[in-house]
Amino acid sequence: MIGEILKKLRTAVHRRMAGFRRAYLRKVWGMTIGEGSRISLKARLDFTNPRGIHIGRETIVTPMAQIFTHDFVKARHVDTHIGSHCFIGAGSIILPGIRIGDHCIVAAGSVVTSDVPDRSLVAGNPARVVKSGIRTGHFGMLVGPSVH
Question: Does the pTM of the predicted model rise above 0.70?
Fold first, then answer.
């Protein structure tokens, strides 16, 4: 009984914090972050060019994932786009100027060096398409026959 109450309370606090973080990143830093998206407090976002980060609706960016929008060596700032209903795995790195389509999964530890088409699962260093035509729901969770 008490365990269930604590679980519900913890979930409510977590959702509220996710909403505050999303609002903070949008209002203070000028990032484009879609409704319902969640960005881990431990995710690394590029604050050198924060207006260059664009994340779609109901996407989750997990701990230690890194999203870059500038290239120091080439002295350039570019936009990096992540679509809606995506999952960005822990420790993954998304390089500047990359465009990740809607309904994509980036596996943990992947290094994304080129654009990712819609409905793709990518993994590795450099990240390669492992599976195409996947179906995802909220936060890039696999749904339907593509779950296998």
Answer: yes
Where are the chain's structural domains? 2-142
Fill in the amino acid letter for 47: F
- Cβ(49)–Cβ(76) below 8 Å: no
What topology does CATH give the domain 2-142?
UDP N-Acetylglucosamine Acyltransferase; domain 1 (2.160.10)
Dihedral, CA atoms, 47, 116, 42, 72, nearest 10 degrees? Answer: -30
Tokens for 148? 């296998």
Nearest to 59 by CA among 93, 34, 29: 34
Are β-strands 93-94 and 66-67 bridged in parallel, bridged antiparallel, or unpaired? parallel
Q: Pick the more confident residue, 145 or 139.
A: 139
List, for residues 87-126, the tens digit of each pLDDT value. Answer: 999 999 999 999 999 999 999 999 999 999 999 999 999 9
Find the length of the chain.
Answer: 148
